[in-house]
Amino acid sequence: MGYQDYLKSPEWKELARRVKERDRCCVLCSSTKNLEAHHRTYVRVCNEELGDLVTVCDRCHTFYHAAAKILPPPRAEWVEDLRWGEDAKPATAEEVAGFMSELGKKLGWTEGGQS
Length: 115
Hints:
Elements: H1 3-6, H2 10-23, E1 35-39, E2 53-57, H3 58-70, H4 75-83, H5 93-107, E3 109-110, E4 113-114
Antiparallel strand pairs: 1-2, 3-4
Helix pairs in contact: 3-4, 3-5
């Protein structure tokens, strides 16, 4: 089974439901709208443990993947460290807002989405 097919499977849907139930909000911005499961690692893809996943809203999910593609290290890892690093130290609201604002400017996004 390919990755995209896996994401449509009942197994993935149940796992994503459990992760969202556990986290209850986006781990980056605390939004409770449009929540998605995000892989912290792909080591066990199709056989994930709950700890391999976190909940993010669709906006933070898009920003995260965009950052990983366009920002050079260590900036891309910095967003990982906001909540998902080894120490799991929560980011401050100011850190998240600053990162999102900076990345949004680089992507040409406005408050409501893409410009």
